[in-house]
Amino acid sequence: KRIATPRPAVPKELDQVVAEYLIKQSLLGDLGYVREESTARKLGLGRTTLRHTFSRLAGRGVLQHHPRKGWIVTPVNLQDLEEYIEIREALEITALKRSFHLLKQDVLMSIRNGNVPGSSPRLDNSLHQYIVATSNNKYIADFFERYGLFFSILMDHAAPETQLVSEMASQHNCIIESILANDLESAITHLRDHIRSQIPIVTKLMQPKHFEDSNSTHDTD
């Protein structure tokens, strides 16, 4: 009897690396179909590995496959962004309500320590994953697994400026402080404001000139 050989484990960060590269190229204005050979060469991957990754990314909303044409990065527009934010807000607030009394003080304080506003800011986005995971609702988790990667990468590229990073760190800490104070309504208000504040930030990213300017200060290729 033949024993099936298990496939090698896929590095968890592989989808992130490939998605970041593809979305970045798309934002720079390369909106055509993705060339598998050149993409695999650029990222140091085999084409089989790349195809498997593309299939996973299609399932997570990053890519679209057009029969007989190939792969294309999912276009983003204001309507898509607003609809995503609307559903994200509703689900994440639901997750916060479900998890509110289960969130651990030491974990929250650790996340707070990772969010440092000011002239040399640091940003820790893990608060959102922690709230969703602690809510223990598979349908909420599935939504963020399905769509979260694409929009989180957009946000990372949209907010490189020190002031924006500082503001987002401060917003995270306001949510955490409200939770630590056992004030659910305040935590919901701060969470809602934080999520909605991302619409104008990502909208600005849709202007190619903005991305080219910010990219020039971060990309050393």
Overview of the molecule:
By secondary structure, the protein is mainly alpha-helical. The chain is built from eleven helices and two strands, in the order αααββαααααααα. The protein has a two-stranded antiparallel sheet. Strand 1 and strand 2 form a beta hairpin. The radius of gyration is 19 Å and the shape is globular.
The radius of gyration computed from the alpha-carbon positions, rounded to a whole number of angstroms, is 19 Å
Helix content: 55-70%
Strand content: under 5%
Straight-line N-to-C gap: 51 Å
Per DSSP, the total helix count is 11
Sum up the overall morphology in one term.
Answer: globular
